[in-house]
Design the sequence.
């Protein structure tokens, strides 16, 4: 079907998230969600929520959550920006900071949303090739550019880049904003947060979706120089003043307060990850060095697509990307020990 107005429509190729099966008993290891619930106080507060307050708009400045995060990460509230998941924070950052004729740089294998936003906002970009071990080549980011975005640890490779390499990139690019997307940093690797007071062009982006078990609440944030945060707030205020809803602000703030629970669940996931990697290596998988809550694996004999299909037939969902260079790999989120035991058992029967 073709209508006369179609020539004026913005053409986009949307980002494709992993499947969210809405019913049935499945083991869901395809979107890097946390298998453990949020901190216990979050459940209590959610039950006691004063719903009369929902009549009102939420605080457009999201002061409560910015204050809690500033306190936790030992920065000033003026250094914190929050949004509806880090996807919102990243999209807003692209819109705010990538406004040059020069291309924005990011790896050819990384979070595929970067390319989608660059296209959507008509930002020129170059995707720099990883090396043959799926590592980011620092020198590729020391060329003229209009901005840089790097996921560290990277996804779906799971590999972390040393902080000294990140610092080289940030210090070599005074005229561009460098965004470090630390969606998985709580599971391994060194955070660039220690550099935000040293470099005014560094923006570190984090999410509550993975390590903080709150993907459903949609909370993300950025930490950086006060002027970067002001610029982000100005663009956000020109687009939608009330991005964060009231329950997310209240429950997100509460979840940060239980640091012992947070560290305990991360510790469990890292331990399960290491056990899963050891078991899969014995089955003939090669696995990249993971600093995340997922693993990226390829089998010596059986094609990834075949394993993906057979697991799915047995209600175990993992992620398969039908893309050059990674089309023989599977990305497997780390679930509970019980889920991973069931996964390994099915895997063994498929490989037999
Ligand atoms: C999951 C993920 C995000 C987005 O997370 P939100 O749920 O929107 O906070 C951003 N970047 C990377 C690399 C991710 O894996």
Sequence:
């Amino acid at each position: 079907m073709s209508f006369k107005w179609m020539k004026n429509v913005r053409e986009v190729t949307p980002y494709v998230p992993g499947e969210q099966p809405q019913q049935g008993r499945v083991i869901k290891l395809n979107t890097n969600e946390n298998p453990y619930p949020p901190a216990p106080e979050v459940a209590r507060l959610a039950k006691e929520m004063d719903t009369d307050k929902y009549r009102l708009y939420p605080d457009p400045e999201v002061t409560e959550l910015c204050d809690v995060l500033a306190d936790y990460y030992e920065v000033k509230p003026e250094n914190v920006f929050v949004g509806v998941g880090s996807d919102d924070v990243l999209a807003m950052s692209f819109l705010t900071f990538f406004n040059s004729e020069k291309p924005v740089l990011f790896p050819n294998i990384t979070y595929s949303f970067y390319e989608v936003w660059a296209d959507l906002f008509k930002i020129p970009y170059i995707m720099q090739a990883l090396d043959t071990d799926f590592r980011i080549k620092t020198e590729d980011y020391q060329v003229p550019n209009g901005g840089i975005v790097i996921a560290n640890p990277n996804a779906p490779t799971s590999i972390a880049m040393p902080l000294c390499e990140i610092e080289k990139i940030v210090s070599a690019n005074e005229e561009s904003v460098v965004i470090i997307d630390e969606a998985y940093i709580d599971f391994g690797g060194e955070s660039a947060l220690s550099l935000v007071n040293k470099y005014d062009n560094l923006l570190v982006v984090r999410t509550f979706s993975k390590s903080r078990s709150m993907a459903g609440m949609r909370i993300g944030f950025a930490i950086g120089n006060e002027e970067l945060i002001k610029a982000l707030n100005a663009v956000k205020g020109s687009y939608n003043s009330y991005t964060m809803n009231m329950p997310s602000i209240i429950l997100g703030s509460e979840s940060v307060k239980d640091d012992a629970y947070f560290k305990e669940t991360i510790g469990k996931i890292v331990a399960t990850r290491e056990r899963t990697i050891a078991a899969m290596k014995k089955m003939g998988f090669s696995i990249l060095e993971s600093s995340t809550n997922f693993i990226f694996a390829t089998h010596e004999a059986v094609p990834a697509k075949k394993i993906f299909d057979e697991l799915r037939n047995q209600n175990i969902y993992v992620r398969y990307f039908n893309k050059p260079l990674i089309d023989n790999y599977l990305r497997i989120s780390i679930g509970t020990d019980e889920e991973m035991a069931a996964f390994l058992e099915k895997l063994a029967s498929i490989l037999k």
Notes: The mean pLDDT is 97. Residues 4-38+260-351 form a domain with the Aspartate Aminotransferase, domain 1 fold (CATH 3.90.1150.10). Residues 32, 85-87, 111, 151, 155, 181, 183, 207, 209, 215, 220 surround pyridoxal-5'-phosphate (CB under 6 Å).
